[in-house]
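Let's sit down with a protein and look at its sequence and fold side by side. Which protein we use is up to you, so please pick one and set it down. Label the sequence line and the structure token line clearly, so we can match residues to local backbone shapes. Go ahead whenever you are ready, and we will take it from there:

***
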Amino acid sequence: MGFFFRPRYSAIQYFKKVIPMEFDYNKRTTTKIKDGPLGKLLQSLHMESAFYTNSTLSCPWAVSMPPMSNCMMFHLVIDGCAHFRIEEEHFSLQRGDFVLFPKGEGHILWDGECQAVTALADLPIQHITERYETLHFGGEGEMTNLICGVLLFQHPLAIKLLGVLPSFITIRKNDQDAIGIVEAVSALLKSEAQSISVGAEAVIARLADILVIGAMRQYLKELSDEKLGWLGALDDDRIGKALKLIHDQPDKHWSLEDLASAIGMSRTSFALQFKRLVGNTPMDYLTEWRMSLAYSKLQLSKDTVLSIALELGYQSEAAFSRAFKKVIGKSPGEVRKAYQLTSS
């Protein structure tokens, strides 16, 4: 006759007793993701997607893209190859390669041989939704498949960032630092673009945003301090600390003396060093940062103008609105209304 072994604890009791596990949900969800100054800057930018096009192009073909102000244009080669020309520059991309035109400058893309260039406005683009399109164009020859997009940038920080970016940025499939992003996002974009299933437009928008931010991050990471311009101030020991104080506590009633004291500098030395690295005075930068945050809040939240003003350290809606219009060029109401019209 055999015997029955009864464990002292059940499996659940064992793990509770021997391996105590605690999960503080509130603590986990309120813990902020840590990132460097540049990462936080890129995270704060809000891209307003204009449109995406799944382009199937057969030789012979050549397309002219017009300049688009406050926009970024990109092309991701899903299959085949494509040639690009912007001013005197000429380069080609293969399958899995990506190019970003940060300043929205006009350019030509073609099969490498075709001389007859067709303007964007004359292409037989088929609108699937207001922001997602397909294009079948060209002859009977070899095929190239591209995901093309235009991203509208109106955030003041985004426009300021464009000053240190070149006319175009390329990320190639065999670039070791970027290969993971390009390969993974390319595969997902290809799948979504071909299926055109429910939610494909939203997924393509998010994936394209990842590629664009990845391209900017890759380029900025490789720049020298001299070429970084005002972005270089983010990594300066003292001025970077002052910027962090402004970024983290925009609602505080900072004075020049307060900021200088907080980073251990004299008022005069701090003002001169800040202006040299950043390009404007500490108080002007504080105002610009507050207005940048307000700009995003007006678009992405339903908070009243007064609540946004109070949250950013202003005592009245009128004072905030005056400062906002001086920096942005439009009233808070105009910005919110314009965004609602473009996103509806």
Summary: The first strand starts at residue 48 and ends at 58.
